[in-house]
Amino acid sequence: MACPACEVQELNDSFAPADAGIDPQRLREALADADLRVLLMVLHQLTGDRRWISDPLLPRRDVRLIADESAGFDEATQRLIRDAAFELLSRGVPSPAIARPDDAKILEMMSACLGEAVDPAYAPMVREDMGVADGDAHWSAEPDPDLLQQSRVLIIGAGVSGLGLAMQLQRLGIAYQIIERNEDVGGTWLENRYPGAGVDTPNLFYSWSSQRNPHWTRYFSLRDEILGYLQGTATRVGLREHIRFGTEMRRADWDEQRLLWRVQLAPTGAAPDAVCETLEVRYLVSAIGHISEPNQTRIDGMQDFQGPMFHSARWPDRLELAGKRVAILGTGATAMQLAPAIIEQVAQLTIYQRTAQWARPTPELRREVSPAARWLFANVPFYAQWYRFTLFWRYGDGLLRFLRKDSQWPHPERSLNRVNDKHREQMTEHIRTVLASRPDLVDKCVPDYPPYGKRILLDNGWYDMLLRNDVELVTEPVSRFDADGAVTADGQHRAHDVVVLATGFSIAKLSARLDIRGLGGRTLAEAWADDNPRAYLGITVPDFPNLFILYGPNTNLGHGGSAIFHAECQVRYITRSIVQAIEHRVQALDVKRAVHDAWIAKVDEEHAQLIWTHPGMSTWYRNQHGRVVSTSPFRLVDYWRMTHEADLDNYRQLTVQEGADTG
């Protein structure tokens, strides 16, 4: 396989700004491709001229996923804005008149940019995301080097979250190490390499705020480019020397006397009785995420099937699909990416559907970022930050208010409220329009539950593909396999050469898959028994001192947003907690039970009003008892605020010297 990191680095180099300054001809060409709402914000920040955020130069409100670059202006106004930007930038990039806008100014600019009033709560969060305010953890005084070494952190997992935490620990000078079971970084992006794998959040938003990449080739990048970004960042920032690849954690025990974790490590795949190495660390961080353990599908006769049968996250090397009869079990996000990507290769594609999925038309999904737009991201001050903000707004919190149950709504069986019902009509119309020639497929493809009850998918040609003669959508469940195919519940046999299990991931245990033993030797699996993972802020668990969890319970995003943004909130909270503990010479933090329980009650109370507790459907967001354990019920701005400061009064604070609780 080609080296994704190398390809991205070559791309970065090819678009690097020239030392000689801005080429006027290239600037003129690039401005022709500029998003004008973004360009207006650039002009205002560079010049301070209020003209650029006032009538008649106020963009029209646009709720599309990728907004119209013209911002609703006529051609004469578009030309005026571009000419002004050319006149300003062709003389060289000026010192900005507004280098660091305060809350009031950023709020004014956000509202002008979007064409709508913005809640003031977003101002400080957006300032930090743009890099004009610093929200990271910092030392109040020069830290004691010995304390930094004594406060060593072990991170389990070198995916997005683990790498994000490592970058911040490295900046603070706190000793850390990552163990990773695979042979490279990337986590789920390393493991999921099935054809068509990619993001469903624009990657200019699905990226670390501190590690911007202006050189994405697509607005929704495929797996190799995302993986290249992660691997390239790990190399450039110097994280690799702190990572032990091909290593897994066998067990972690909390030492109640010495207030540290004793962690047993072994090579990945070593025998159960292999001799383990023991590592002692002050802090243990689980960064294994939600979607790292494939669901173990069990259907009679699976062992009898003679062809390749595998989970989509375990895609085999050198798998040949040309001319093969391929079956896919599942119609979730993976299947919707995979099937259109392989349809031109296979002889026959059979898709077994358990539940119909809502999908919205997304013409932008395959859209490439033009070289001109990449040049703007790389060379024009503030352009990338404001463009990222526009994506944040469309993929962020705007939808959540429409996912609340309306007790007066007369049609709860199909939708939650008036707006949710409108979304249902729009997506149903899309399905009916594309599948107009096949009423039988319409019946199979229109879900019987409210939109957003399950993860909304992005139609990348899925419905068009279903119209092909070499594609069959089967809604009868598979009852058993035999040597050369599958038999459905109606007794029909279909022959297959390859079977792909696109059946999702096991998320019920989350970090409890790891053998972690806290106070009194109680395991995390015992604390989360009965399929019920819980953690304060999704990060800390009572009786498990100095254990932090990244991408933990109730931190998945079901209403929109970026998992990387959420991870950055958690990283900020963890690093601020550790910095405060070191500065106060506290060796261990154990979240108070009352604080934890109050948080869980708040989560459950919010979810009781939201779509994911809607009856009459199943979703992997909920456990077997119907409690939502995966998704967050809060706006991004609310979670940002909740995790922005670490209040150690919420924790029992333990010290070895005193041998007692100081909190």
Any overview of this molecule?
The structure is a single chain. By secondary structure, the protein is of the alpha/beta class. It folds into 3 domains: 4-135 and 369-395, no CATH class; 151-185 and 239-293 and 507-661, FAD/NAD(P)-binding domain (3-Layer(bba) Sandwich), CATH 3.50.50; 302-358 and 411-501, FAD/NAD(P)-binding domain, CATH 3.50.50.60. It contains 20 helices and 22 strands. Helix 8 (160-172) links the parallel strand 1 (153-156) and strand 2 (176-180). The chain starts with a helix and ends with a strand.
CATH level 3 topology of the largest domain: FAD/NAD(P)-binding domain
The CATH homologous superfamily of the largest domain is named: FAD/NAD(P)-binding domain
- What would CATH call the class of the largest domain? Alpha Beta
Helix content: 25-40%
Q: Please report the number of helical segments.
A: 20
Based on CA atoms alone, the radius of gyration comes out at 26 Å
Principal-axes shape call = globular
Please state the second-level CATH architecture of the largest domain. 3-Layer(bba) Sandwich
Q: Give the beta-strand count.
A: 22
Name the poorly predicted regions: 1-20
Strand content: 5-15%
Q: Indicate the structural class.
A: alpha/beta
Total count of domains? 3
Alpha-carbon distance between the two ends? 53 Å
Largest sheet: 5 strands, parallel
Q: Output the strand order for the largest sheet.
A: 3-2-1-7-19
